Amino acid sequence: MSSADTNQEQTPEFHRQRYLELKARAQDANTRRPAQRLTENPRHIPAELVLTVETIPGGWYWTCRLARGITLRIVNDAATAGVSALLWNADDPSDRFNPADTVKVQWTARLGPGTLLLSDMGRVLASITDDRCGMHDGLAGGSTPQSNARKYGVGSSARNTRDNFLLAAAKLGLGPRDVGPCATFFAPLVTDHEGRFVWKEGAVTPGDYVDLRAEMDLLVALSNCPHPLSPDAVREAHPVRAILWRSPSATVADFCRTSTEEAVRAFENTDSIARR
């Protein structure tokens, strides 16, 4: 490569054009993602593929170790306003879910079918392979003692996601430093043209679910507490179900693995550690 070519690649205009090119490619791929609500009726899981079914009471948390290739289905039977999730690489918990990179690398804040949940190290923790809701939040995070005090009043006994995750982390042998920002499923939070958060009331319906396929061995924590920006201050969380099932292996044409150049690289990063 000549010095002239090298100098051209170092100019702000070169990098700007490269940025716009990558953005256009990714946004084109995003338009080809499956519809948000893949099925009007729940997709049945054959009984022989189900490994376990757990019920998470309203306000409480749940943890599990999820092996690569196993899918976690979260079922929101009563349309409760949000179920928050944290994921860690089971072999190296410092490699954990990073919502900022999940949004940035995929050029979209929409979490839905075909979306990858990415880690701090650019690996794929899980893929959203099926989704009967399509309304999930990767921006605002879960409830805290402070958000509960603002929402329900000082002295409220309502549980919150931050404290749930601290308890869940301890149960998994982790500590407070391992509890980072989370994703909250069944939270219809969108941004308007001025960048303000808007809650789409009625967008979550009873029986909605989301499938998360583990792309490496994972530690998982779920918190069944309402999203801090859900508008109903007296709305209680209802039980949700966590179903672990043996999902089909990804094919070479799997949309999650092939949708964008960024997805291909993320899976290359992931598959390299699986082969060690």
Summed up:
The protein has 276 residues and is of the alpha+beta class. The protein has 7 helices and 12 strands.
> What is the number of beta strands?
12
Strand content: 15-25%
Say what oligomer this is.
Answer: single chain
**In angstroms, what separates the terminal alpha carbons?**
35 Å
Strand count, sense and barrel status of the largest sheet are:
6 strands, antiparallel
Which class do the helix and strand fractions yield? alpha+beta
**Neighbour order of strands in the largest sheet:** 1-12-3-10-6-5
Number of domains: 1
Topology:
Layout: H1 3-9, H2 12-31, E1 50-56, E2 61-66, E3 70-76, E4 83-89, H3 99-105, E5 116-118, E6 124-131, H4 145-152, H5 161-171, E7 183-185, E8 189-191, E9 197-199, E10 208-214, E11 218-223, E12 240-246, H6 255-258, H7 261-274
Antiparallel strand pairs: 1-12, 2-11, 3-10, 3-12, 4-7, 4-11, 5-6, 6-10, 8-9
Could you characterize the architecture of this molecule?
With 276 residues, this protein is of the alpha+beta class. It has one domain. 26% of the residues lie in helices and 24% in strands. The chain contains 7 helices and 12 strands. The strands form 3 sheets. It has a 6-stranded antiparallel sheet with strand order 1-12-3-10-6-5. A 4-stranded antiparallel sheet has the order 2-11-4-7, covered by helices on one side. The mean pLDDT is 88.
